[in-house]
Specification:
With 470 residues, the chain is an alpha/beta fold. The protein is built from nine helices and 17 strands. The protein has one domain: FAD/NAD(P)-binding domain (3-Layer(bba) Sandwich).
Length: 470
């Protein structure tokens, strides 16, 4: 992929212009390889190579996100403005959404159903797992797979083996931290946001999977608006850090930035209807530390296990699904002689529902998140999980210690939701904005609902699916 400057990018028309350069952008572009298309990626931030990131600990300085927070609790939002986006700092967890996550309304009477099913996206989930060389176990909690994971799962911790013997809904965390393939085997150091050995999949180390000689990259150019003519998108307007503006023409425009930016671009452009920006949300997490009478840890990666005992069932008509993560690093040692490793570190991760009062708005033409708090539904799910904890542990243990609710799960969702009609959402099943067949919104902004599971694999699968439809 060649680099181009603003003059070259704006001096011609492109077959496809993709705004962003992370999972949504590149997995969409992968389906365009070899199709004789001139494709331009437009990235708001700079290109920062891996060596520079390591030298500067770049992941420790995320950009600020403007918000009006009336929740009474701290709320952080994880975004990255650089080539590869959040692929540079994610932890590599790749559990699948369950089939029930796609039809909450018809099963449990809450939120909205996706107009796409698990079965429609499943082959693309498998493709994404192959591309990212995911390590996983083929059958966990009964999920149907069309083919095996490309690489075996990481080793479970000592406590996780006991948990699994008691309840088969426990299993290894599917992970894009390598156990084989083209990248180094995970070192289990627990520094996954900036992997010291490049074991975790990123766009930077995965570029070969997306390569095409007709792909080009423009960096340091923020997309501000989508231009339209004769009922179609005709291009985008970009602005550089120095304030220079330019128009870039394209036959097809794909917005694949983070949900905040996707919504802001549509709002500035007057495109997408009244639903644009509404319902931004993410999961809510809570750590638990439990002292146990045997040595734990010695797992194969940072987050080795996950439990589905609280993930699905009729309770979801009233309380959120909760995924249980078991952590191997950092170990949170017991500061008692001879008992250093006798601790279990878990995390409850609860799904949240999109609330219309939580939204992206424009202030002085720049985005602000209006945040009123997580839903009562999410907190009821966490309360149910806490009440259920003793029954999930098949060994003696001290009284669990619960942490505060985490300020972010780094999984921003919503703002341009997919729906069956323009009255219900912003984009259709191909992620095209209703009324503009050559404008797409990709990534988690198009999710009608989230899930307790991490969204990255579903982001990648949905982009592969949308690319196939082009």
């Amino acid at each position: 992929m060649r680099r181009v400057d603003l003059s070259a990018a704006s001096g011609r028309a492109w077959d496809v212009v993709i705004v962003g350069s992370s999972f949504a952008a590149f997995f969409f572009a992968r389906q365009l390889r070899g199709r004789d298309l001139d494709v331009l990626f437009v990235e708001r931030g700079p290109f920062i190579d891996r060596e520079t990131q390591l030298a500067t600990r770049h992941e420790e300085t995320p950009p600020e996100v403007a918000q009006e927070n009336s929740s009474g609790q701290r709320k952080d939002w994880a975004v990255r403005y650089q080539f590869g986006g959040c692929s540079n700092c994610w932890w590599g967890n790749t559990p699948r959404f369950h089939p029930s996550d796609f039809n909450l309304r018809s099963r449990y009477g809450v939120a909205q159903d996706w107009p796409l099913s698990y079965d429609a996206l499943e082959p693309y989930m498998a493709d994404a797992e192959d591309i990212m060389e995911v390590a996983g176990e083929d059958v966990v909690d009964g999920l149907t797979r069309s083919r095996p994971y490309p690489y075996p799962p990481h080793t479970l911790t000592r406590a996780e083996r006991r948990l699994r013997a008691h309840d088969p809904s426990w299993g290894p965390m599917p992970s894009a931290r390598a156990t084989g393939g083209s990248r180094a085997h995970c070192c289990a150091s627990g520094t996954c946001s900036l992997c010291p050995i490049d074991s975790k999949f990123t766009i930077l180390n995965g570029l070969e999977s997306f390569d095409d000689e007709r792909f080009a990259l423009l960096t340091d150019a923020e997309c501000r608006e989508v231009q339209t003519a004769a009922g179609q998108a005709s291009g985008i307007t970009v602005r550089t850090p120095t304030g220079t503006s330019a128009e870039i023409r394209g036959d097809f425009i794909a917005l694949a930035a983070n949900p905040i930016s996707n919504a802001a671009i549509l709002l500035r452009s007057g495109i997408g209807g009244e639903g644009v920006g509404l319902g931004v949300h993410e999961q809510v997490g809570q750590f638990i530390w439990i002292d146990i009478p045997f040595d734990n840890y010695y797992g194969g990666t940072s987050i080795t296990g996950l439990g589905y005992a609280l993930y699905d069932g009729p309770f979801r008509s009233d309380a959120a699904s909760v995924l249980i993560e078991s952590w191997n690093a950092p170990p949170s040692l017991r500061l008692e002689r001879g008992k250093w490793l006798q601790r279990l570190k878990l995390k409850f991760v609860a799904e949240d529902l999109p609330l219309t009062e939580n939204r992206v708005v424009l202030r002085d033409n720049d985005p602000v998140i209006v945040w009123t708090g997580h839903s009562a539904y999410a907190y009821r799910g966490l309360e149910r999980a806490r009440d259920s904890l003793d029954g999930l542990l098949p060994f003696a243990h001290d009284t669990p210690r619960f942490g505060k609710f985490e300020p972010t799960e780094a999984h921003l969702i919503g703002g341009t939701p997919m729906a069956a009609s323009a009255e219900q959402g912003v984009v259709d099943t191909q992620c095209r904005v209703f009324g503009l067949s050559n404008l797409a919104c990709l990534g988690a902004s198009s999710f009608p609902t989230g899930a307790a599971a991490n969204p990255t694999l579903t982001i990648a699968a949905l982009s592969l699916y949308a690319g196939d439809q082009l």
